[in-house]
Amino acid sequence: MLALLAVAGIQAVIFGPVAAAGNPPDDACLEGYVWREAFVGDHVCVPPDLRRQAWADNEAAASRTVHIPATPLTPVSSDFCQEPYVWRDARPSDQVCVTPQNRLLNQYYNKMAPQNRLDLKITVGRWWPQPVCGADNICSSDSTDDIPRFRVSASQFSVGPVTIRLHETSSGKVLWERTVQSTPRPFNLPGGSFTVDINRYDCSWFGNDVPLDAYIQAEDHGSGGLSPAVPVRTGCRVL
């Protein structure tokens, strides 16, 4: 097993503005989805047809609603939907009358809202280099240093190119960079996913003695957004 040494002189640093936040678009929808706009501020991501239906239902709301005014015996007025309509319930106070099927669709997309947004969050895991095998198919366990490297994955990016970068925190210098293709997610889920391996030591494997001296960030070319930065430990050397 190879010995590990922390690089001398490295101190913990605080992320600057570029490294810390990233700039994923606020409430952006994945490709193929739009804000529903059933009411002001409704940013649930739905197919365009459902947004058009929401607008049409809003315009037809008065013709589908029965209003019972207040009387001395019933001091509170009330509203009901004409048959076969029901409340849409896009939110608790949404009393626009729609078909039962339309209400079910809106309930479904309310539940799916987090999955249909352009998230731009990345997950940093680990991978280990495989032993080197010779022409005789004999593999040597001594051919690898047993130190994990970084594996970056994500599942709610735009479909298309994504650039992953490893930055030095103190200077912002790019230590490693690669552009990969985010491919459509399985099971007809919206958006794109990717996994990429970075052949740099993940020094957190050895504990927290090595400071957080770098960060990983992904640029989504389709939206122009940056993922939030993920701090990592790279400042170690092996002998």
Q: Give average pLDDT, whole number.
A: 85
What is the level 1 CATH name of the largest domain?
Mainly Beta
Report low-confidence residues grouped into runs of 5 or more: 1-21
Measured by DSSP, the beta-strand proportion falls in 25-35%
What's the order of the H and E elements? Answer: EHEEHEEEEHEEEEEEEEEEE
Considering the protein shown, what is the CATH homologous superfamily of the largest domain?
Purple acid phosphatase-like, N-terminal
**Terminal Cα separation, in Å?**
10 Å
- Tally of separate helices: 3
- What is the share of helical residues? 10-25%
Number of strand elements:
18
Rg, rounded, reads 26 Å
> Architecture of the largest domain, CATH level 2?
Sandwich
Task: Look up the CATH topology of the largest domain.
Answer: Immunoglobulin-like
Topology (SSEs and partners):
Elements: E1 4-6, H1 17-21, E2 34-35, E3 45-46, H2 48-64, E4 65-68, E5 78-81, E6 86-87, E7 97-98, H3 100-111, E8 123-127, E9 132-133, E10 139-140, E11 149-157, E12 160-168, E13 174-184, E14 192-201, E15 214-220, E16 225-226, E17 230-232, E18 236-238
Antiparallel strand pairs: 1-18, 2-3, 4-5, 6-7, 8-11, 9-10, 11-14, 12-13, 12-15, 13-14, 15-16, 15-17
Structural commentary:
It is a single chain. The protein is an alpha+beta fold and 239 residues long. It folds into 2 domains: 4-25 and 118-238, Immunoglobulin-like; 34-114, no CATH class. The chain is built from 3 helices and 18 strands. The chain has helices spanning 17-21, 48-64, 100-111; strands at 4-6, 34-35, 45-46, 65-68, 78-81, 86-87, 97-98, 123-127, 132-133, 139-140, 149-157, 160-168, 174-184, 192-201, 214-220, 225-226, 230-232, 236-238. Strands 8, 11, 12, 13, 14, 15, 16 and 17 form an 8-stranded antiparallel sheet that branches. The model is unreliable at 1-21 (pLDDT under 50).
